DNA sequence: GACCAGGCACATC
DNA sequence: GATGTGCATGGT
């Protein structure tokens, strides 16, 4: 195992020791996970929960029911998640693909390879890389490492990836150095989000500090 | 009141 | 290709 691979696994173990298994993704069904992946775009999860709850109360958290809603009906139900107009469109786009081509059945996609699933998801307007990878990993239970802003922040601050590395470069970095393991991918991303929420502010006051103090909420 | 949150597409250069 | 901007609610 390479030194970098060792370091990644040590960081993983530290996070797991600190926070324990995260049991991701929260949701009662793969479909709910898929919807949640769109709703959580640049949005706090507690707001997403409110939106999901409204969808459940309206008995619209199924592909068939949601597909029948008008734009305005859907936008109103997901209002607490923010960006409700754009997210309503994005969910509609996702549902068109899912219902028209696969009859709204998750099982119809279970034999797709990760790369095919990813290509099809990325063709949908409103489904970007992180959302696609989240759906593949957490809704379809297939190994596709998810990168988010916390991943970029934390691992550049630890000097493991470059500041200007893009999404695909960071994803490749993890997939190159980690075993291709569904459970590891699942837990690692969830743990990164957890530590990111607590310790990884977007604009560290001591940016550039050689002590990396900004990783620990220490301000100089 | 300012800042942030589990992004993405689009316009412009 | 990179940079800037709009999208919006709710918690701290």
General description of the model:
By secondary structure, the protein is mainly alpha-helical. It has two domains: 3-22 and 146-199; 30-139, Orthogonal Bundle (Endonuclease III, domain 1), CATH 1.10.340.30. The protein is built from eleven helices and no strands. Helix 5 packs across helix 6 (84-102). It is globular, with a radius of gyration of 18 Å. Mean pLDDT is 92; it is low at 205-220. It binds a DNA duplex (13 and 12 nucleotides) through residues 25, 36-38, 40-48, 50-51, 79-87, 90, 125-131, 134, 146, 148-150, 189-190, 192-193, 196-197, 201-203.
Provide the β-strand percentage band.
under 5%
Which topology of the largest domain does CATH recognise? Answer: Endonuclease III, domain 1
Architecture of the largest domain, CATH level 2? Orthogonal Bundle
Helix content range: 55-70%
Q: What would you call the structural class?
A: mainly alpha
Number of helices: 11
How far do the termini sit from each other?
A: 37 Å
Please name the fourth-level CATH homologous superfamily of the largest domain. Answer: Hypothetical protein, domain 2
pLDDT average, as an integer?
Answer: 92
Output the helix-strand order: HHHHHHHHHHH
